[in-house]
Amino acid sequence: MSFLRFAARRVAEMAATLLAASFVVFGALYLAPGNPAGFLLAGRSASPDALAAINAQYHLDDPFAVRYLSWLGDVVQGDFGRSLTYRTDVSRLLADRLPTTLLLIGMALVVVVVVGLLLGRLSAVRGGATDTAVLVGTAFAVGTPSFVAAVLLQGVFAVQLGWFPSSGAGDGLLDEVRHLTLPAIALALYLIGMLARVTRSAMLEALDSEHVTVARSRGVPERQVIRRHVFRNSLGTVLTTGGLIVSTLLVCTVLVETAFSIGGVGQLLELSTSTKDFPTVQAISLIIVALFMSVNLVVDLLLPLVDPRIALGTRSSSA
């Protein structure tokens, strides 16, 4: 199968999955207790005429299929509807908050990749006391939930030492980076431990392979063996964890943003869920699904390039 044909098939599969996900996202909220009309009334009693006017304004009385198709048509055009809580377009809310969340996720992802790969490589190559220290450290990291890490980092580095702000997102790029440093570390801690252990296992497996033994017997320098034959061959295994890493970042962002009062999309999702703001929750949920699937698509396309031993379509068919 050619690369272009494989890419086209994966994009088509992604579009079909997104369509199914949109139906689930739209329909799931209507199965939850409560309704948007009750929130809009804020607990006040209303006459049947007033209630009917609210339902007509927000199309709450339309059949489910009509509401879904109308919503889907608007989403395709970039219109996610109007927030019931903030009384403004959801697209505007997302435009104001999404850059902060993406910067936070980007910073956390950089920390995860750099530190996780470095620790995994050191643990596999050096062994001994270094390996033991990395295993102990990563066990602590994996066992620490993001919200616990957030509280600990706030208490030590924000309250006691005063090195970083304890809340907010900052104003301007440099100030934002400073405000988001502790949240990014809290978000990345668990994933650093996971990626380090995956990298270590993949490299140890590669070290025991026959082609590494042959390379060493031919007098190839150890650094070159590690770089070209061990680390590179382990990247395929490491890359397959990309989807899990991103999905974890997206989910844990809600907890971390709430803990640090960042005001990004994660905190918006938490507030919108508690207030039954259906259009906002639906938009954010669909964006999260789209981001997760986009990462999986990129991983599928990169795998054959990183590891030529993997045939096009192998991962997709096995999944």
Your description of this structure?
This protein has helices at 3-29, 36-41, 48-57, 64-76, 90-126, 128-142, 146-160, 173-207, 210-217, 222-239, 242-260, 265-274, 278-306, 314-318. The protein has 319 residues and is mainly alpha-helical. It has one domain (90-318): MetI-like (MetI-like fold, Orthogonal Bundle), CATH 1.10.3720.10. α8 (173-207) packs antiparallel against α11, α10 (222-239) runs antiparallel to α13 (278-306) and α11 packs across α12. The longest helix is centred in the middle third of the chain and has 37 residues, at 90-126. The radius of gyration is 24 Å and the shape is flat. It starts with a helix and ends with a helix. The relative contact order is 0.14.
CATH superfamily: MetI-like
CATH architecture assignment: Orthogonal Bundle
- Overall structural class, as computed from helix and strand content, comes to mainly alpha
Low-confidence stretches: none
Q: What is the CATH first-level class name?
A: Mainly Alpha
Counting H and I runs of at least 4 residues, what is the number of helices? 14
CA radius of gyration is 24 Å
Name the beta content range: under 5%
Which sheet architecture does the biggest sheet show?
none
Please give the domain count. Answer: 1
Helix fraction, binned, reads over 70%
- Please state the overall shape, judged from the principal axes of the Cα atoms: flat
CATH topology: MetI-like fold
Give the topology string: H per helix, E per strand: HHHHHHHHHHHHHH
Number of strands: 0
* Distance between the first and last residues' Cα: 18 Å
Subcellular location: Cell membrane
Family: Belongs to the binding-protein-dependent transport system permease family.
Main location: membrane
Membrane topology: Multi-pass membrane protein
